Amino acid sequence: MSTPGTEREVRTRIAPSPTGDPHVGTAYAALFNLAFARRHGGQFILRIEDTDRTRYVEGSEQQVFDTLHWLGFGWDQGPDVGGEAAPYRQSERLPTYREVAERLLAAGHAYHCWCSSERLTQMRNRQQQLKMPTGYDRMCYGKTREERAELPGFTETPVIRMLVPDEARISFTDLIRGEITPPQPDDQVLLKADGFPTYHLAVVVDDNAMGVTHVIRGEEWISSTAKHLLLYGWLGWPVPVYAHMPLLRNVDRSKISKRKNPAARLKWFQEEGYLPEALVNFLALMGYSMPDGREIFTFDEVVESFDFARVNPVGPVFDIDKLNWLNGHYLRALGDEEFLRAAEPFLPAGLGVDDVRTLVVPLRERTKKLSELADQLDWLAADAVEILPADLAKHGLPPADARTALEAFAKNLEQLDPFEPAQITPTLDRVVGELGLNRRRSFMTARLALVGKPVSPPLDDTMAALGAARTADRLRQAAAGLPS
Ligand code: GLU
After folding, report:
1. Ligand 1 atom showing the smallest separation from residue 25 Cα
2. Radius of gyration from C-alpha coordinates of the chain
3. Are the C-beta atoms of residues 46 and 88 closer than 8 Å to each other?
4. Is the CB of 217 under 6 A from ligand 1?
5. 49 lines ligand 1 (CB under 6 A)
6. Does the CB atom of residue 198 touch ligand 1 within 6 A?
7. Cα 148 from chain centroid?
8. Best of 196, 217, 228, 242 to mutate for ligand 1, by most ligand atoms within 8 A of CB?
9. Which of 39, 276, 310, 343 is 20 to 30 A from 380 (CA-CA)?
């Protein structure tokens, strides 16, 4: 069955607000809006909803562009690339919102409201105390300015509110959820006293001006859709098709918020060293499933198979273990140079790509996210490391044997030329054989001497990365520090 609305040229959009670090929900919405538009050969639009001046954060618009580009997402129209439906920032469209609000006033679908914010707070508190539904009580409705000015709680500059008919009973068919009847809306403010529209007026005016055919957004907007549908009806504009995506949830099922979960910030994924392909795959898995049930797939494969029938409306849990697993998979698929390039920003201070080139294979095998490299490579960046007696007791040789082994390793390794893994392991094996010591415990003792902890890349690679001089030096230092 074909998706409603796709007989026209499909246009989708995201409309993030520049209110700080971009939210992971923005990437999630972008992914599905872009996939659907691409699937149908349509256009994807980026619009900035900057009408809430109190929450505006300088620079966050650019961060939205940058993080979406990092994920490999581009848009056909937007504030940075332009387009026929410009402007793409709501603050640049203010006269249009006012005109539309005036038109609704003239047609009797909206009215002025002069209530002060103190009065509105009192009204809400009273409604809550009485356990009544909260919503504007229409004190100003049907009154002239002069009439209203006689009454308490009056302010000079009015807002414009929509006049929601009693028992409006708006319903619509959602592409993911089927028939929905949201709760009865209240008389929502459309135009604020500062002349800026509210989200509800702006979103309808913009989606109409931009020819948006499908509104794909989070389920938290379902109740707003009732208000938007009233506006479309009054204005005589074509109504878009709606698809409300499931909300991403924390493990405790609460909504992902920047306050509770660092992963709500898109930049967190960059900081932790996740690859964009892994994050896109992960976000797609949150709600979408491939026809063959595969869990690893590319964005292009989402596009090819995209169908809202395969979006699960039940809020997916943000499972970081799954993301780590996916990211490990994508890291292992990188070539040596690609891996090193991706790893470079995560190397401990003082180390460059050339210092870790010989370790690329074991690092790639073991890393789930690139931020782990700081810990995995601290021994290489450090000037010296220390053996903890507890580690030696648990993994290594008894102190007297340990000293003998470390000194013998140092002496024999120093003579190696070239100092490479292919020569290192046979040398270590020979020394252990000559001394008649336990191989595993001898190697572990050397590892503790070089790395200071019982985990590291294979010993020969570890030694090769340190180089002959530093290896011999650390082995001797460790031997000297052992209790006799
Ligand atoms: N500004 C809203 C947001 O950031 C847009 C909601 C919508 O897509 O209508 O989620």
Report:
1. 10
2. 31
3. yes
4. yes
5. yes
6. no
7. 48
8. 217
9. 276
Distance CA 401, CA 407 (A): 10
Q: How confident is the model at residue 261 (pLDDT cuts 50, 70, 90)?
A: confident
The DSSP result for 335-396, as a single string, is: -HHHHHHHHGGGSPTT--HHHHGGGHHHHHHH-SSGGGHHHHTHHHHSS-----HHHHHHHS
CA–centroid distance, 217 to ligand 1, in Å, is 7
Average pLDDT over residues 262-280: 95
**pLDDT at residue number 382:** 95
Q: Is 204 helix (H, G, I), strand (E, B) or coil?
A: helix
Q: What is the distance between the alpha carbons of residues 239 and 233, in angstroms, rounded to a whole number? A: 8
pTM: predicted TM-score of the whole model, two decimal places = 0.93
pLDDT at position 1: 64
Q: Is the CB of 221 under 6 A from ligand 1?
A: yes
User: Among the listed ranges 50-64, 228-242, 339-353, which one has the minimum average pLDDT value?
Assistant: 50-64
Q: How many CA atoms lie within 13 A of 450 on its CB side?
A: 30
Instruction: Tell me if 167 sits within 8 A of 184, measured CB to CB.
Output: yes
Atom of ligand 1 nearest to the CA of 16: 4
DSSP symbol at 54: G
84-90, long-range: CB within 8 Å, 24+ apart, which pairs? 85/45, 85/209, 85/210, 85/211, 88/45, 88/46, 88/47, 88/48, 89/47, 89/48, 89/50, 89/61, 90/47, 90/48, 90/49, 90/50, 90/51, 90/197, 90/202, 90/206
Nearest to residue 274, comparing CAs of 214, 328, 193, 205? 328
Which positions are annotated as active-site residues? 258
- Look at strands 11-14 and 43-46 and give their pairing: parallel
Structural domains of the chain ordered from first start = 11-79+249-310 (3.40.50.620), 93-245 (3.40.50.620), 334-376 (no CATH), 383-480 (1.10.10.350)
